[in-house]
Amino acid sequence: RIMRPDDANIAGNVHGGTILKMIEEAGAIISTRHCNSQAGEPCVAALARVERTDFLSPMCIGEVANVSAEITYTSRHSVEVQVNVMSENILTGAKKVTNKATLWYVPLSLKNVNKVLEVPPIQYARKEQEDEGKKRYEEQKLDRLETKQRNGDVILPVINPEPHTVGYSQSSLIHLVGPSDCTLLGFVHGGVTMKLMDEVAGIVAARHCKTNIVTASVDAINFHEKIKKGCVITVSGRMTFTSNKSMEIEVFVDADPFVDEPRERYRAVSAFFTYVSLSKEGKPLPVPQLLTETEDEKRRFEEGKGRYLQTKAKRQAQMQQSAQQ
Amino acid sequence: RIMRPDDANIAGNVHGGTILKMIEEAGAIISTRHCNSQAGEPCVAALARVERTDFLSPMCIGEVANVSAEITYTSRHSVEVQVNVMSENILTGAKKVTNKATLWYVPLSLKNVNKVLEVPPIQYARKEQEDEGKKRYEEQKLDRLETKQRNGDVILPVINPEPHTVGYSQSSLIHLVGPSDCTLLGFVHGGVTMKLMDEVAGIVAARHCKTNIVTASVDAINFHEKIKKGCVITVSGRMTFTSNKSMEIEVFVDADPFVDEPRERYRAVSAFFTYVSLSKEGKPLPVPQLLTETEDEKRRFEEGKGRYLQTKAKRQAQMQQSAQQ
Amino acid sequence: RIMRPDDANIAGNVHGGTILKMIEEAGAIISTRHCNSQAGEPCVAALARVERTDFLSPMCIGEVANVSAEITYTSRHSVEVQVNVMSENILTGAKKVTNKATLWYVPLSLKNVNKVLEVPPIQYARKEQEDEGKKRYEEQKLDRLETKQRNGDVILPVINPEPHTVGYSQSSLIHLVGPSDCTLLGFVHGGVTMKLMDEVAGIVAARHCKTNIVTASVDAINFHEKIKKGCVITVSGRMTFTSNKSMEIEVFVDADPFVDEPRERYRAVSAFFTYVSLSKEGKPLPVPQLLTETEDEKRRFEEGKGRYLQTKAKRQAQMQQSAQQ
């Protein structure tokens, strides 16, 4: 589809959240189709997890986004989908890869939303593909468990914060979940949630550095719990780490089933977004250092630094590998 | 893309207007891409005309719309695009053809919006394809001229109208043209206009027969004049004809460039929409006969009857033809 | 236009904010058109104030909203517009008056956004109409000044609040102002702001009473300052008063021009919304009493009570008057 002014920031760069939403819609279609391809109970595929995603090059207003999706692995109860996004300038014909994302879906029965159904197995061209898929499956399963455990944190408000502190840029929004946010089962599309998360993370980043900012990457996102139509969701973001030219923002999504259900507010999703600041010419700008005040903030800064260095090391290893080939 | 609750009426049938909008977006992308495929002035393809389009089967919420487009003819200054829409129920895997539409686009220069550029010619597999395309091109050109001439009519309000008269169901809406309604050139997408036209036609039809209604077909739509960002457009509809099971509604679009231009309000588009009334089981229902009062209304009713009988005769001829094959 | 699922809450009642947005769009169109009706500098009408508005009967999904607008007074630099909203059930044909609203607009030059232009005078059928209009003009001018003065208040967060306290239900959302929120001048439409205010007020009300709630009325809203594209706006609401069957919520809008402007966050709008709680059959329900804790909360409760009793007295006076006629 063509990118519109509403999909982009003032500088004309399409929001990472818009792209994440398109990716998730493509993933939901292909995996729902696959899970219903054999006779049996009808089901809808629900997003369980998105692997770490890099935004390789910015997309602009007027460009056409081409989204393609492929199923790359199936376990007994889950589907791995690989989605690629290309941006195409239809005036010049130039095409660029914008994103490569990996998503995990789980089929839920249309009759009983709490029942996870079985996934029809796919055929692999080579035995190694199945083995590698199984390895990815085991890894993400472990990571999902871990995130669930450290997920109790809350963002407390700060009165009169100093510039460049954590409290200064932290932000939250509330959103009432309407019908067009939802799947056939009446639960929020993962893509809608990710778009709101990117919106909050972008406001945190812009408040911190007061320049034009764009999403550079999103760490793995786990969808721990479904969110129902009619809930109010609170999406909160706080900065955890800054390098010379990037900012890491942690985002939480809490759901509040405040009408006609006796349930308490619960944590539904959490993730780390990385943003960079761009000059008017599109060059990366230096970012003001985050001022940490409390022990918790200092600890989270160090953890963020760890993730940053790990990603940097991985990228260098990949570059050396491709240089050697 | 997946059809959402907002794309549909209360009974869950997707609005014809939503489908027309998707068709036009696909047509605009493929023809803009084609017209920029040779070095030269960059341009944007603007919709000039949509040929008569039948809605073959209704699409429902939760189904996925697959839209494919192909260039079938090029004249010196225009492109003919054939767009097909399939609806796919991803739970059952069932696919149906929903629409086949033919659209004509004209390339406008990005630098000078009043300059029509030349279209790179396409290659035809067989000589007959080119000849048939040329015939279609000549026919539509003639029809465009004719429509332009009879386009001066206005819809006047009626005080205390009787049920089933023309005045009883006639309706109009106004819409302020915003940035996300527009192309790169700052003119309204043809698809946005068609969606609003379908909305008004649907209200006229529902007011007349007070049941669930769906778009059955749209007669050829000619886009006589561009509409600029910041205009107020008035979309008005009145019923012109009823058969036993269908209603024909004429829709006008008038643009009012009320800021920063000295221009008068002008007629930008007009078209005929045909609606049918459906029971809760999706079966066609009889439609109350339209009561015509003035001479003009009686004349328009007869003209509508002419179009109705002509379409019916064509369809029967086609059915006999395919029965004989 | 037809009311869609997204325009309404779970019970199918259209959000007051959707109606306020349509009212403002109609007002902006008619007053912009009027202010450009004489040769001179082109301009756009900006919303300065909305008078107190009662929601007389709820509108539902599938109904058609008919909005009509008329200019009722012009001063040298402002226009008074009266907007009426009727809801029409197109299946039964039943029509009801939903809203009557009065709005004040000011023409701003398209060339220089800080220049207020002169308004072409309208003709009055009777001299009394002009005198009454002038009286309304003077009254609202006074009220605008007063609100501006008491407008410094902020909503502070509360940790672990008790149910039914002010802190328990208070809510805020942030919104990044995008292109389709804005007029030709690049400033937020008043209607967009009102829709967000109603959204926050509705969440406050629902959090307090945990039932289906609808907007009953909005007190006069003054638009003190324009909000520019690219700003982040924070819309915050807190409950100030409860009667047996209604809740009053105060809503603030603060704008944060955080990119490329050296300006501080400022208060742009504030207003009081009144909500009622409805049973599944649409009958008003009793509302839990608001628990006030601080001196400020007690003072605001008393002020809210004053407004409530004043409105009640006015309504009774009107009913007696119409009974005597």
From TrEMBL, chains A, B, C:
PANTHER family linked: ACYL COENZYME A THIOESTER HYDROLASE, CYTOSOLIC ACYL COENZYME A THIOESTER HYDROLASE
Q: Its Enzyme Commission number?
A: 3.1.2.2
- Write the gene name: Acot7
Know the name of this protein?
palmitoyl-CoA hydrolase
Q: Could you tell me the keywords of this UniProt record? A: Cytoplasm, Hydrolase, Lipid metabolism, Repeat, Serine esterase
The record places the active site at N9, D198
Coiled-coil annotation: which residues? none
Query: Looking at the UniProt record for this protein, which Gene Ontology cellular component terms does it annotate, in alphabetical order?
Result: cytosol
Q: Which PROSITE patterns does this UniProt record tie to the protein?
A: HOTDOG_ACOT
Low complexity bias (residue ranges): 316-325
User: According to the UniProt record, where is the region Disordered?
Assistant: 293-325
Enzyme class (EC, first level): hydrolase
GO terms assigned for molecular function: carboxylic ester hydrolase activity; long-chain fatty acyl-CoA hydrolase activity
List each copy of the HotDog ACOT-type domain by range: 1-111, 167-281
Reading the lineage from the top rank, the first entry is Eukaryota
Which positions make up the signal peptide?
none
User: Among its keywords, does the record have Transcription?
Assistant: no
Q: Name one GO biological process term.
A: acyl-CoA metabolic process
Where found in the cell?
Answer: Cytoplasm
Give the compositionally biased regions (Basic and acidic residues).
296-306
